[in-house]
Design goal:
51% of the residues lie in helices and 4% in strands. The chain has helices at residues 31-41, 44-54, 71-86, 94-97, 100-115, 120-134; strands spanning 13-15, 89-91. A two-stranded parallel ribbon has the order 1-2. Helix 5 runs antiparallel to helix 6.
């Protein structure tokens, strides 16, 4: 689902991070075999298993009309496939863009909130402090 709109009139921002990538090492002794394996992993039959059984969203184009998907999975596939044409915006996974101290505060701080050891307000302040400490001054305030 998209993040809630912060400002009326903005387009929804969807979380990216919908799958992993496969790479072929440039120095491999078996580049053709490696490429054939990757092709196998994402051919139409394999995509049907990835989506239908594993609920894993694949990083390749495919014929979604040939796959029997539950309504939620079908909606996500539609959003992903139409993203380039629709102007949908994809956001970043925050842990990739944030400083390590912020990520630590995300994990440990929210556990403390759930355990009742700190308030949500304390967690918000701690996250802001960790962000500001770990980011250059010009980038200290998130803008989205």
């Amino acid at each position: 689902m998209p993040f809630p709109l912060i400002k009326e009139g903005n387009k929804p921002t969807w979380i990216s991070g919908v799958g992993s990538a496969f790479y072929i090492n440039a120095s491999t002794a078996h580049p053709d075999e490696a490429a054939a394996f990757v092709d196998f992993l994402f051919n139409q039959d394999s995509v049907e298993k990835w989506l239908g059984e594993a609920k894993y969203f694949v990083p390749v184009a495919f014929d979604a009309s040939a796959i029997d998907l539950d309504p939620v999975t079908a909606q996500i596939v539609t959003v992903l496939q139409e993203a380039g044409d629709s102007g949908a915006l994809f956001g970043y996974n925050i842990d990739v863009m944030a400083p390590p101290a912020f990520n630590d505060m995300m994990q440990n701080g929210f556990q403390a909130v759930l355990a009742g050891d700190k308030t949500a307000e304390q967690q918000a302040a701690d996250l802001q402090a960790a962000w500001e400490k770990g980011m250059p001054a010009a980038d200290a305030t998130p803008t989205s």
